[in-house]
Amino acid sequence: MVDLGTILMGLGDAFHPMVLVAIVTGVALSQFVGALPGVGPVIVMAIAIPYTLTFEPLVGIAFLVGSMKGGSIGGAIPAIILNTPGTPDTAMTTLDGHPMARKGQAKKALKMATWSSVTGDTVSDLVLITVAAPLAFFALRMGPVEIFALMVLAFAVISALSGRSLSKALIAAALGIFVSLIGTDPDYGLPRLTFGNFELFDGVPQVPVAIGVLVLSEIVLRLAGVGRRSQSVIDMDASADPTDDTLSFREYWACRFVMLRGAFFGTMVGALPGIGSSAAASMSYVSAKAAAKDASSFGKGDIRGVASVESANSAVAGANLIPLLALGIPGSVTAALVLSAFMVHGIQPGPLIFENQGRLIYGLFGAMMIANVVNLGLGLVGWRIWVRIARAPETMIFASAIILCIVGSTVISGGTFGLAILLGFTVLGVLMKVYDYPVIVFIIAFFLGPRLERSLGQTLSLLTGDLTNIVQFPVAIALLAISVVVLAVFFIRNRRDQDRHSA
User: Fold this and answer.
1) What number of other Cβ atoms are within 10 A of residue 482's Cβ?
2) Domain named DUF112: which ranges (predicted)?
3) Taking a C-beta distance cutoff of 8 angstroms, is the pair 71, 33 a contact?
């Protein structure tokens, strides 16, 4: 376990001026981008990864943490004002946030969204700090066979929960693993799938792939739909009642159980790979409505609806890092991008990271808590600016993002080769999204592919080529059995859903 001195030094590093500047910048940019309907913080994080190379690891990762946290508050603004979710996980915010705005309570709804987001996020971070290190300690007791079985289980859960079609999710996972195999064979040192291109000997560069599949493809699709959406505009000063513009402590405190319930759902969902914050928001909203004595007000402008959704979707952010730091398995796109940033800086997340990089990890924990305070402050002060940004022309924003994508991919790969990778995987991302193949499954499989291959090789060596020897590893057998059950359950569920729709 990490000693107290390392923990204190790490927490002290979080207050370095450069780290603080990175946090504030990341939160501000993410709130800014989140306020643009349908964009989200993933774009900020993916574009920023190449530029973090010029800074110390903690500074760059602190920027990504700030970007991860600010998106939810920014995404709630167009959901409340324009009835258009800024991010997918704020879709449920429109149910009560926009009716509140139509009643002249837009400012109250925005303030409640900010406070509940930070509340849920803080609870989730405390769970991360408390749970991650002990979980990593137990993970160290697992051998290569158990690690391989655990990764198979993670792929099964992600594939089952990340799309409506299990077959498409499995195809996306297989494609991600296939792309990760391009490069030099780790066992024999021979190039494979490079087609004589020496630039592929080190594998396909991760950052251009992530930017192309996640960001540039989304920008292309968004630009294709520019001008097709009509937006309703709310007058922020429509109400003459001053209480409609403020959020009292009594109103906040009255929602304490709703927010704690949302934080619980967000933390539990975030700790499981592949489910996502949208599911957490839905579960929290349904639970809050079921527990309310006067549930009829939900969907008509009930402040508890806003609190339940925002506390849940924000709590997912911190919990997403639990499997990443403890096991080296990212559970979401944002966690996969944080993993990419770690790897760009030569750091491998997993059970040993607390022992080898304890100071960095507790600096990260300190940065996360500071980011919550910054997120609250900027959210309460900056919403007036973000409301105007929500109405900004998308073409101007996306044009700037495209330039940053191209420059970042060129810088990280050292030339035009990165640009070619970026464009190729942009096309792949567009096709996957158009045909409803889950991009999150592809990108996580791509990042985990080398580790999965290494674990498989070690497993086969320990089993001496005889698969029946796996009976000596009961934990691995249990994990593999759970994987089969997960896939079978969701396959049966999907078949029933298809039969129901066809009937």
Assistant:
1) 16
2) 20-443
3) yes
Q: Going by C-beta distance under 8 Å and a sequence separation of 6 or more, which residues neighbour residue 147?
A: 455
Lowest-confidence segment of 119-123, 315-319, 360-364 by average pLDDT = 315-319
Confirm if 26 and 63 have CB atoms less than 8 A apart: yes
Handedness of CA 483, 489, 492, 494 (dihedral sign): negative
3-state secondary structure 188-238: CCCEECCCCCHHHCCCCCHHHHHHHHHHHHHHHHHHHCCCCCCCCCCCCCC
Alpha helices by DSSP H, listed for 345-438, are 353-356, 358-389, 394-413, 416-434
Domain extent at residue 427: 4-502
3-class state of residue 190 by DSSP = coil
Cβ-based burial of 293 (10 A; exposed 0-12, middle 13-18, buried ≥19): exposed
Distance of CA 404 to the CA centre of its chain: 21
Q: For residues 153 and 85, give the distance between their C-alpha atoms in angstroms, rounded to a whole number.
A: 32
Q: What does the alpha-carbon distance between residue 148 and residue 66 come to, in Å, rounded to a whole number?
A: 32
Q: What is the pLDDT of residue 237?
A: 54
CA–CA separation, 81 and 233 (whole Å): 7
* Structural domain count of the chain: 1
Q: Bridge-partner residues for 192, per DSSP?
A: 183
Give the pLDDT confidence of 275-287 residue by residue, as tens digits.
566 667 877 888 8
- Over residues 140-192, the pLDDT tens digits come to 677 778 878 887 887 777 777 665 677 888 888 889 889 988 888 877 778 88
Of 422, 423, 417, 419, nearest in space to 197 by CA: 417
pLDDT band at 231 (very low <50, low <70, confident <90, very high): very low
Residue type at 166 in one-letter notation: L
